[in-house]
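User: I'll paste a sequence; please echo it back and then give the predicted structure.

Assistant: Echoing your sequence first, then the prediction.
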Amino acid sequence: MKITVTKDGTAAMLSLSGSFEAQDAPAFAAEMKKLNDVTDLALDLDELTYLSTAGLGEIVRAQTKMNVSLIHVSKEIAELLRMTGLYGRIAVYEKN
């Protein structure tokens, strides 16, 4: 997975591309530690092709520390969020 970070004050966007699998969780966690002063985080999933349960766990962990929004969410990932009960707990903006 590739992570591109854009930060502006207390807001940040992480653009994720590729597959977010278990082996990617430490890299995501390391990026999150760098954002310790961020209160609002947007995760751009436009280029994300797969989200594992480990990746989902990292997103939930981020949600406990800041306001998280998921943007450009594919139908497949939106369905995963619905099945896990996270769709209403995290702001989700699906692709058109």
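The CA atoms of residues 53 and 62 lie 14 Å apart. The domain at 2-94 is CATH 3.30.750.24 (Transcription Regulator spoIIAA).
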